[in-house]
Amino acid sequence: MSHDRSIRDMVAAVAAGKTSAAELTTRYLDRIAAHDETLNTLISGCADTARERAAAIDSGAAADTPLAGLPIAHKDIFCMRGTRTSCGSRMLDNFVAPYDATVVERLAAAGTVTLGKTNMDEFAMGSSNETSFYGPVRNPWNTDYVPGGSSGGSAAAVAAGLVPAATGTDTGGSIRQPAALCGVTGIKPTYGRVSRYGMIAFASSLDQGGCFARSADDCAHVLQAMAGFDERDSTCVEREVPDYVGALGDQGDDYLKGMRVGLPKEYFAEGLDDASRQVIDAAIAEFEARGAEIVEITLPHTELAVSTYYVLAPAEASSNLARFDGVRYGYRCENPVDLEDLYTRSRGEGFGREVQRRIMVGAYVLSAGYYDAYYLKAQKTRRLIAQDFTNAFENVDLIAAPVTQAPAFKLGEKLDDPVSMYLNDVYTLPASLAGLPGMSVPAGFVDGLPVGLQLLAPWFEEARLLGAAHAYQQTTDWHTKRPAGFE
Q1: Does residue 25 form part of some domain?
Q2: What is the pLDDT, as a whole number, of residue 154?
C-alpha cells in the first residue's frame, strides 16, 4: 500500500485484509532507513518492537480498534515504557521511562504501531529544532533549512512520508510553527483536552499535546484516540470528546457557508513577509469562495504576547527543571567534589545553552525583588490577551491568520540571535497564552518552501477547526504535496 494513502484508507485496508500491519510497518521502516540519516528526525528507533507489535495486531491482538496497524512516531517528550525518553537533552540521554504517558497509552490501545521517538528542541525550548543534543533536524523541502520547532522531528517525519502521523506538543507554537514550515497539518487542542500525564514538563500552564498528519481528516483520527479526561492529570478537563472522525465523514460541501471568519488586523501588519501574505490572502479567498463571511477584527494586546510569554514560560521552566540535579536520575557529572559541585556541574554540563538561558531568566523573574514587576504583571497581561479572544469570538466563529512571518530560514541563521528566534512565534503565542485550540494548514509555497494558514477556534471547538480545515482541503491540494526525493 502506498505511503500516500490517508489514515482512513490505511485502517480500512488493514481491517478488510487488503494489507497487513506488518506490511505497513515494513514500508515505513524502509523509508526511515532510506531517508533519516539525512533528515535526523528520530532520536530512538523502535524497529524490533514495532515488528513484534505489528505481528501481534495481524494475529488479532488489536481487533476492532479504531487505528489497528497504523504506524506512528512519538515526540521524545512523551514517556514510553522501556524506551529512552530524552527530551532532546544530554540531561536525559540515559533515561529509560518506567511507564507510558497517557497519550502513548491511548494511541497504543487504539491499535497503533510505534516506529520511534522523534527529535526535538531540548526540553521543547526552541523554534528551529537546532537546540537538540542529537543535532538539528533538516527540513525535507530543502535540507539547508530548519523544520521549525520544538516538534520539528515529528513535522519533518510526516512531511517526508517516514510516518503517516506523529505526536507533538505545543507550548507557544511548537506544533503549528513546524507544521507550517514543513507543509503538513498540525493541531494543538484546547489546553486540558489532552492529558499531560507522562509528558515531560516545560511550562505546565501552557504545554499541550497534539498531533501532525497530512490532512485534517488524518489529524481527526489521531486526536480522537488521544483526547479525553484523565484523572492522573489535574489540569485535564472532564468534558465529553465529540466524534471528530464521524463529523468529518458526514460533512457536506456547504460547511463553510455562512461561517464568520475573523482576520486580526494585528497579524497582517508590518512584519509579515509580502510573499507569505499573498499565500495567506489566497487561502482566505478560498474560504470566501466556499461561502464564509470575512470580517476584520482586532486583538489589541497581541504586541504584548512575546514579552508576556518569555516571562511566564521561563518562570515555569525554571521550577519544572529544578528536579534535574544529578542526584536521582539523568545526567550526573564525574567525580564531584561536593554537593554544590555536583549540582553545578551536572546542570551546567547536562543542559544546553538555550535551556540554561531560560532557567536563568525564569529564576530572575520569580525572585523576591522582581516577582511583582515581571511575573505578576505578565500574568495580568495574559488575562488581557485571553479576553481579547473572548471578545472576538462573540462576533466570529473562527479566526484565520498567518502562522509565521516568513517561510523556513536557513540552519544556523538565527541560532546566535535569541530575540530574532523568539519572534518566530509572534503569531502563535497569543493563542497559547489563552489556551485556545489552533491548527496550521498547508496553504502554498514561497520559493519552494511551504507556508501555513493558522486557524483558531473558541475553547473546546476542535471539531470546528477540523471541519473548516477539511472543507478547505477538499478544494485545494497543498496538503498532498511531497518534497522532491520523498515521493
Answers
A1: yes
A2: 98
Position 348, amino acid:
G
CATH of the domain at 169: 3.90.1300.10
Does 339 map to a domain? no
Residue 311 belongs to a domain: no
* Residue 72 maps to a domain: yes
Number of domains in the chain: 1
Catalytic positions are 75, 150, 174
Q: Comparing 125-129, 246-250, 457-461, which segment has the lowest mean pLDDT?
A: 246-250
| Domain span at 140 | 7-255+439-450+463-480
Tell me how far apart the alpha carbons of residues 270 and 275 are, in angstroms, rounded to a whole number. 13
The predicted-structure confidence for 33-56, as pLDDT tens digits, reads as follows 999 999 999 999 999 999 999 999
